[in-house]
Automatic annotation (TrEMBL):
tRNA-binding found in the keyword field: no
Residue spans crossing the bilayer: none
Top-level taxon of origin: Bacteria
Molecular function via GO: transferase activity
Coiled-coil zones: none
Organism lineage string: Bacteria, Pseudomonadati, Pseudomonadota, Alphaproteobacteria, Rhodobacterales
Name listed for the protein in its UniProt record: Sulfotransferase family protein
InterPro entries: P-loop_NTPase
Record-linked Gene3D superfamilies: P-loop containing nucleotide triphosphate hydrolases
UniProt keyword list: Transferase
Length: 206
């Protein structure tokens, strides 16, 4: 992977875990290492919308992400805007991408589900937006009680581990591990020049 802009290039890496689990950290790490990466928005459009538009209009979920090396956050949950997109949780879509792009790599960014739930609760209106939305694995009205978000997250993590078991193009990356940057670089075959904590909660905690 290299960071030279090229309109013919499509993403070779997708982060398929949850927000508040290191997506911003991975995004900055890739950018600081010379890769072109899309996080949440790309060219003023939600990444999730571009992925679904590419799938339904062109038959390829990545078709509208030309010139991008990696996608670090696909979900976009803004019910006030009528937008609720979670392609990172859409197993059928992810399997379609794997079939159409056999060289594409998938990273399951990991934190303990309870820690992620805690981070959700401290990040602006995220829990409120989630509970107002129908999300794969989390129906509208769920997510407001302790443990519901952690259970939802844990189920997705387990599903991804099972589906991608033994796939050399799949990496579960514990973002808190001391060797996280080294493992990411080895997986990508690309040196990582920065690693830390990006987009921390307002209280300074993850």
């Amino acid at each position: 992977m290299d960071g030279t802009p090229d309109a013919r290039r499509l993403p070779k890496l997708l982060v398929v875990g949850f927000p508040k689990s290191g997506t911003s950290t991975i995004q900055r790490a890739l950018e600081e290492s010379g890769l072109v990466s899309a996080h949440w928005m790309w060219r003023n459009r939600p990444v999730g919308r571009l992925i679904y538009d590419g799938w339904f209009s062109r038959g390829d979920p990545l078709a509208l992400l030309e010139g991008v090396d990696a996608v670090t956050q696909m979900d976009f949950c803004m019910p006030s805007q009528g937008v609720n997109l979670w392609p990172n949780l859409d197993i059928a879509l992810l399997l379609t991408i794997r079939r159409l792009h056999p060289d594409c790599r998938f990273i399951l960014n990991y934190r303990p589900p309870k820690a992620t739930e805690s981070s959700f609760g401290r990040w602006n209106t995220l829990v409120e937006r989630i509970t107002e939305s129908d999300i794969p694995g989390l129906p509208r009205g769920r997510g407001g009680r302790p443990g519901e978000i952690a259970r939802w997250i844990g189920a997705h993590l387990d599903a991804m581990r099972q589906i991608f078991a033994g796939d050399p193009n799949f990496l579960e990356l514990d973002i808190t591990a001391p060797d996280a940057a080294e493992r990411l670089g080895t997986f990508l075959g690309h040196e990582i020049h920065w690693w830390g904590v990006a987009n921390a909660n307002p209280d300074g905690k993850r």
